[in-house]
Design brief:
Elements (H helix, E strand, L loop, with lengths): L3 E5 L6 H15 L2 E8 L2 H9 L5 H19 L4 E7 L2 H11 L4 E6 L4 H7 L2 H6 L6 E5 L7 E2 L5 E2 L4
């Protein structure tokens, strides 16, 4: 069903909610993952135009992507990485189209309308500009747990 899944990573705690979900989905479906982080600092946004050297932010983001990819690859999941530069919604959409992705996975921070107005919502901008299905995982939530007979939750083995 989903052969190539773009996983939009933030290089932050929100990824802790997204990666386990998408890894299990990829494992079950035999999907390839494309881990994408969009560096959007000054150097990243002006890298090509001003012929700038790679920033520390960009090097750290690339190392982060490589680390996540190595952990997924060790679990037998086919994975590639891409560090995009610039505007996150535009780069996620561009990369998904160019790389032939058939699902985009992202995290939501649960902002309310006023928060999205001031902060902007990458998800909103992506969903309004693509026909590719989007899987949204709420950031800050634990990995789904399996209920035990006593009704309390136990965390799955990692």
């Amino acid at each position: 069903m989903y052969k190539k899944i773009l996983v939009a990573l933030e290089n932050g705690r929100a990824d802790d909610a997204l990666v386990p979900h998408i890894a299990e989905l990829a494992r079950r479906l035999g999907s390839e993952l494309l881990l994408v982080h969009v560096a959007d600092g000054f150097v990243a946004r002006n890298f090509e135009q001003l012929k700038l050297a790679e920033s520390e932010e960009m090097r750290a983001d690339r190392a982060y992507l490589d680390g996540v990819a190595q952990r997924l690859h060790a679990r037998g999941i086919p994975v590639a990485t891409e560090l995009a530069l610039g505007n996150p919604p535009q780069e996620i959409l561009r990369t998904a189209e160019m790389r032939g992705c058939d699902l985009i996975a992202m995290t939501s921070h649960g902002h309310k309308m006023i928060g999205d107005f001031f902060l902007g919502s990458t998800i909103e901008k992506v969903r309004h500009n693509t026909m590719i299905p989007i899987l949204v995982v709420r950031a800050g939530r634990e990995t789904p747990a399996t209920p035990n007979p006593a009704g309390s939750k136990s965390r799955p083995a990692t």
